[in-house]
């Protein structure tokens, strides 16, 4: 490793430690963890009531939806943190000060990315300890393949973080970055739930029916969104693990890695083109 590479990795570690310290000592991280655990408790309590009322002795997959819920909340929190980080520091002039030193576009983006991923690993550790406690209290068992789901969640969150950093890198202000992120998130949600809502509406005719037209539009959009939305990747991956379809799992994992690399690379290019000043 030459001198430039060593200097770059020192800058990466500097940015990562600085960002990670801010997040770990911040209030928002622990609010999100608490909300995730509360959601998991409510879901598990509902499952317990169902087991008692139905007289079931065993319930499989009780932790699937609670696990998805905490991963979803963690990903949204990290996405918001990532999507504001570069735009905020550019707006405040902090980025310009950092780039006077040994920091360049690559070390800056990598440092931000690694800090967000380290935060997610910390959140995963907390969730794992608490879910282990929940399993002991409820007698619900973890599926043996939960490790594959956790691994895929890391790749999916990596995708979310990389895309959010990309949005932040190309935005001139925090407000613009948040607007872009929320617009994309709401668009994906509307495509998913709008399709389900419209599919429940009966269609009286086959021709010139606006409901039928919108159903077809949303079906086509959903077909695209399922290969774009990282949360769709997570749901598909959980289903692939449940069915033992490891080929599909490998495709989803590889695609998540490729998207992460793509958006991180684009973030570096955007920073070099736009510069660090407002």
In words, what does this structure look like?
- 82% of the residues lie in helices and 0% in strands.
- It has 278 residues and is mainly α.
- Helix 3 packs antiparallel against helix 5 and helix 3 packs antiparallel against helix 7.
- 33% of the residues are buried.
CA distance, first residue to last residue? 34 Å
- Counting structural domains, the number is 1
The fraction of residues in strands falls at: under 5%
What class would the helix/strand composition place it in? mainly alpha
- The helix content, as a percent range, equals over 70%
Number of helices: 10
Q: Give the beta-strand count.
A: 0
Q: List low-pLDDT spans.
A: none
**The biggest beta sheet, please?**
none
Radius of gyration: 21 Å
Order of helices and strands: HHHHHHHHHH
Task: Offer a quick outline of the entry.
With 278 residues, the chain is an all-alpha fold.
Indicate the topology.
Blueprint lengths: L2 H22 L2 H28 L9 H29 L1 H6 L5 H34 L7 H25 L3 H26 L10 H16 L4 H14 L2 H29 L4
Relevant terms:
single chain; 278 residues; mainly alpha; 10 helices
């Amino acid at each position: 490793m030459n001198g430039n590479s060593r200097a770059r990795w020192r800058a990466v570690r500097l940015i990562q430690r600085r960002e990670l310290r801010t997040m770990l000592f911040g209030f928002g991280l622990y609010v999100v963890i608490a909300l995730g655990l509360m959601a998991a408790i409510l879901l598990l309590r509902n499952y317990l009531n169902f087991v008692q009322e139905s007289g079931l002795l065993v319930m499989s997959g009780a932790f699937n939806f609670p696990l998805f819920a905490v991963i979803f909340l963690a990903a949204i929190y990290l996405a918001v943190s990532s999507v504001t980080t570069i735009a905020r520091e550019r707006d405040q002039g902090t980025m310009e000060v950092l780039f006077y030193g040994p920091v360049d576009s690559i070390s800056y983006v990598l440092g931000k990315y690694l800090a967000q991923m380290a935060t997610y690993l910390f959140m995963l550790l907390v969730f794992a300890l608490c879910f282990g406690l929940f399993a002991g209290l409820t007698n619900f068992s973890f599926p043996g393949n939960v490790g594959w789901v956790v691994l895929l969640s890391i790749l999916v969150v990596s995708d979310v973080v990389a895309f959010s950093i990309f949005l932040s890198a190309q935005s001139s202000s925090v407000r613009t970055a948040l607007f872009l992120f929320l617009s994309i998130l709401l668009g994906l949600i509307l495509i998913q739930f709008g399709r389900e809502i419209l599919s429940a509406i009966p269609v009286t005719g086959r021709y010139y029916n606006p409901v039928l037209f919108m159903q077809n539009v949303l079906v086509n959009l959903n077909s695209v969104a399922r290969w774009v939305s990282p949360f769709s990747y997570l749901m598909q991956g959980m289903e692939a693990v449940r069915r033992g379809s490891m080929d599909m799992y490998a495709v989803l994992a590889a695609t998540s890695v490729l998207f992460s690399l793509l958006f991180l690379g684009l973030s570096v290019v955007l920073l070099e083109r736009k510069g660090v000043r407002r």
